[in-house]
Amino acid sequence: MKIWFVILLLSLAATGCTTKSKARLETQNAFLAGQNAVLQQQAQAAAPVPGVTIIGAVQNPQVPWVSGLTLAQAIATANYLDSRAPKQIIITRGGESAALDAKVLLNGADIPLEIGDVIELR
Question: For every one of its 122 residues, what pLDDT tens digit does the chain have, with 9 covering 90 and above?
Fold first, then answer.
């Protein structure tokens, strides 16, 4: 916001004489523009990264989305921490859940994921 104020002062000095009301209006506009820029930056920083969520004993519960992401890749990216393999995996997509035995995954079958999937490791 300090940059906007400096820019405003420089622009006023370059333009010459101005009325107090015009200067006040320009100052207010510059201040509001600076506030809007900061709010937009904060909103972009707070926006969730599209991907999948892993619930359970993992180091990174948010896995960023990449094309072709599979269940095994997501669990590996999340860095599973438990020394024992999970017994059950529940995948929730669009409000509907499906449970599968973790042995299916350990036997080599892999499941493609979609953006927004929630994986629960039990």
Answer: 556 555 655 665 555 566 888 888 888 878 877 777 777 777 666 666 689 999 999 999 999 999 999 999 999 999 998 888 889 999 999 999 999 998 888 788 889 999 999 999 98
Same domain, 55 and 35: no
Beta pairing, strands 51-55 & 118-121: parallel
Q: How far apart are CA 113 and CA 122, in angstroms?
A: 18
User: What is the domain count for the chain?
Assistant: 2
Residues 74, 111 within the same domain: yes
Block residue for tokens 């999937």: 117
Distance CA 2, CA 37 (A): 12
Could you give the CA distance from residue 122 to residue 102 in angstroms, rounded to a whole number? Answer: 9
Please tell me the distance from the alpha carbon of residue 12 to that of residue 114, in angstroms, as a whole number: 53
